[in-house]
Amino acid sequence: MLDPHLEERIRALVIEIISRYLNRKILAVFTGGTIGCKEARQQLLFCQKEYNLQVDLMFSKAGSAIHNVAELSQEFRGQVFIEGQDRVERWKEYTAIVFAVLTRNTASKAARLLLDSYPAELMIDALMYGMPVIAVKDAADPEIEEWRNIGLNRANAELRQAFQDNLRRLESYGVRLCKSNELRQVLEKILDVRVEQKKAVSSSSTLRLDKRVIIAEDLMPYVGSTMELEVPKGCIITPLASDLLRRHQIKVIWRP
To answer: Which pTM was predicted?
Structure first.
């Protein structure tokens, strides 16, 4: 038999690992771009709520001057980092880094591996580490309609091509570029969200599991949903599964 203290430590470690899986962290980088930023922000907020994400915020120097840092901090309720004041020391713990949105400046620097700004350095370091990097390209792609709306669509072919070359180079490095209205879809793929299971839960407030033994893995796709769990009387709920139910305040209904 295991030593009780060792058994408790192993149990705590397993709970921590499961908790990290369920409470995944995203680092959202806000540069000085404004085109597409509002839509990207809404899509990121949706994913945060829908998939139980922790979203920390990193602002470039220009981003901290242009965006309302206090308002975004209040919305996302994550840790805030500002270029020139903070460095994200534990960035390897994030599930992904999301640039919402990418600017022409950061795109150009990262494409050419000019790492004299923290956002460009962070992007390249994350790619070298193998971490998913998503970049909303609206503010870095003058071919998008919003650029025509502000009158910046009259560049010659060579200049337009230069911007596209930067974006293509970033894609070749592994950056997942998308438009602001596509951010949710791209992020869901990285998170490996079980969309059909989420839909099934959202259509009913009660999840019914007909199993003799319920383990933590059975509950993982549903954590974060507002629901009740209905199980047959006499079934066994493992300690780890019980911890998840208690942590996420899921009510258990015992069915005769």
So the answer is: 0.69
